[in-house]
Amino acid sequence: MCGLFGVVSSDGKTLTSEHEKLFSQNAGLARRRGSDASGLVTIEPGWKIKYVKAWVPVSRLLRRKEIQNHLKENSFNGLFGHSRLETHGFSALSSNNQPIVSKDWFVLHNGIITNQKSIKKRGWDRDRLGNSDSDTFAILLLIEEWEKQGRQGDMSEQVFSQCDGELTVIAGSRFGDLVIYTNVGNLYHCRLPDGTSLLGSEPRQFGKKYESSAISFPLGLTVLSEQKADQGPGLEEITLNLELRKENGATALHMTDSDLTDDFRQLANELADIAYSKMASVSRCSKCLLPETFPNIKFDEDGVCSICISFIPPIYPGIQKLKEDLTAASPNGKDVLVCLSGGRDSCYILHLVKELGFNPIAYTYDWGMVTTAARENMAKMCGILNVEHILVSPDIQKNRGRVKHALQGWLKRPDIATVPILMAGDKPYFRFAKIVSEERGSLPAVMADHHLETTGFKSMLAGAVPSTGQNGGVEYRLSRNSLLRMALRYSRSAIVNPTMGKSILVEGAVGFFDYYLRKHTFVRPFMYIPWEEDELEKVLAEKYQWSKGNDPSLPAWRMGDATAPFYNLVYGLSLGMTEHDALRSNQIRYGLKTREEAELDLEKDNQVNVLALAAYFGTTGLTMSESLKALKQMKALI
User: Fold this and answer.
1) Which of 428, 429, 339 is nearest to 389 (CA)?
2) Could you tell me if residue 347 is inside a domain?
């Protein structure tokens, strides 16, 4: 889930300075897909391959004196590069960055290989190939096996088809090979007037002059070169002198139980027990499960809450109406953009849209707090469905740093109303959905939100009075009075807690605008058809081997959001409820569960996932000792 870019000449011609300028522009525009690390591959006449990789964004890499000198002093037949979103393997370690190389081959890969562990278990010559935590390393191992077997069989079948997940690959060897492989169509090319070709993960990388000429590579293997080349000493690395980067948030996404200290585990369980006690002590609606601590709630003489009393069942137009509306909204009646988060609802909608005969393109905004399970779920589905996947990612290290700053500020003076500020970094999701939609020809953007996941209590804690409307919700619009009350409440918190002030006034303000004020024009399938949890999870498990993450016994809702374990613990400690209480209560109102069934589900839903809680702290950049300190601060405030 990264950005690929390149320029390659035809008929062995050398590239010009104009080609190199287009390459640099292409590289800069690929950065939107990931900026945690970068790498370049250069092919000089005679098929001499050199490469460089570093943990800096690609724009910084291209500005390095060593790289500028290399580009000025040599001629090239091809230039290729990679702008990395860190998923598997800490990007401060060169072995984890791309290109992944052996003496003979280089591999540049966009996507995630979900069976990489089983491939790596087949073993490899570590003296020859080294080691890497990157999932892309699995491709290199398979290429090595294929070479040892004398290249018997088709490379597509023997190498790439052995990998599950999402694959778009540029690979080459010192023997003269240059191949493209994609199972999702995530690589485009544009032929310039002189026959030179630009390559990129998205047409927009070619700039306004050439993006309209972009054509996607066909699914499967495309051979760009099989010329006989000088089989010299092998690939040569261009070395850079870079200081080691210390941030290591990505490793927390792969945390295991063995990474937890006994002190952390004990204190987290103590906090969980306090939250469970609070949940058991609050009085609840006799019809649903909402507690007396739910903001602005009232109960009648029979103990029925005001939300149940005012509830109006939704009207569903049906699946045929959804198909008709999507067809009418699509420029060609087929192409649509599906917002894909890696959670169960968005994954199911991608499946549904494909089943209905549309040609979906998946769009993801990865703000750095997306879990590994969610990323792998997206890769599995896009790979199986052969769906192109457009990824937008900010500078994740900076973004995690902002979350860390906000979290540390919040812990100094906790305020239940400002908890959403800790998730403000994901709100550009809405803005970029519109941007990507327009880039791809004004495609209708399909979003998987639905009535039952409405959790208005978060904004109500800051003074809002949500309006649910006839169909029960998923309303982003609030009245002017509500917006004003929320803005004043957040501003007051910024004054009282200056440490968190920047987070509220910068990230919070941007998120507030994107979520509440920006116009949203999504097509929402669950406004047309009922949301059926059991059927949905059954389809995902049977067809796509969809995963809930490190603890399958816990609920699937929000499993893709690394922040959820923390904020739900906070709400549990403060209110004796979490967002799961709101979801299960909605299911009761909609007639999908009895109160007894929902109560049993809620007991499991509200179990604190200690490992996921530790992963949240670690992903922001906190060490285990700092995470333990954060828990102690929370306990001291109770």
Assistant:
1) 339
2) yes
